[in-house]
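Lecture notes, continued. The same structure-token format from the folding unit now serves as the input rather than the output. Read the line below as a description of shape only.
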């Protein structure tokens, strides 16, 4: 199981140092929550932040979650800025397969993100091209929300679909993940936990919190 540390709740005044510290303390990758104030009701960060972290010396994987519409221009921009993995929502593009193939052509791994009410039917046609399935356990747009318990069943369903395909595809969970529910989420079938406020707003040291998340 891996931790993808969402920097949405980091101190942006010292973002490079925050990223280095969180990776040193046990996080496996850096997670970008990219919001456009159209697809979701919030506005966050663009490719320049990704490029800045690479220039600062961050070499670990950067995991970019696009909560934007459209997506193709940002896929290209983030790939050029140094993203390792780019995930987008099927509702946010007119041509899912084209956006997947664009991401792969730029040398990035690719994921599909599913909101709490988005059905998994898209996987029937695109699963063999994916590296990641990201399940939102909150409604996207803001950090610090509570985990939606129904997501556990969706994790189990996704795990069965992937096992049946015999493909090596990771399952990431994003939203409301903390030290109290992480073991239950992993038991349901998750491989990657996207964690933001539970780390950056914890009263304990980063290393202690990450160790608890990893069990």
């Amino acid at each position: 199981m891996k931790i993808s540390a969402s920097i949405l709740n980091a101190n942006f005044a010292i973002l490079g140092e925050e990223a280095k510290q969180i990776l040193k303390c046990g996080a496996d990758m850096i997670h970008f929550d990219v919001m456009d104030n159209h697809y979701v009701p919030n506005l966050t960060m663009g490719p320049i932040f990704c490029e800045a972290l690479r220039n600062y010396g961050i070499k670990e994987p950067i995991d970019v979650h696009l909560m934007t519409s459209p997506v193709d221009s940002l896929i290209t921009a983030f790939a050029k800025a140094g993203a390792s993995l780019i995930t987008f929502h099927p509702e946010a593009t007119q041509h899912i397969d084209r956006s997947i193939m664009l991401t792969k052509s730029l040398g990035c791994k690719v994921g599909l993100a599913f909101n709490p009410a988005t059905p998994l039917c898209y996987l029937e046609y695109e699963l063999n091209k994916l590296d990641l399935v990201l399940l939102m356990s909150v409604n996207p747009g803001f950090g610090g929300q509570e985990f939606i318990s129904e997501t556990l069943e969706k994790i189990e369903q996704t795990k069965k679909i992937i096992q049946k395909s015999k493909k090596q595809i990771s399952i990431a969970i994003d939203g409301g993940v903390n030290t109290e529910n992480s073991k239950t989420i992993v038991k349901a079938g998750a491989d990657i936990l996207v964690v933001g406020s539970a780390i950056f707003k914890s009263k304990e040291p980063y290393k202690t919190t990450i160790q608890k998340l990893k069990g």
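Point for the exam: The first helix runs from residue 15 to 24.
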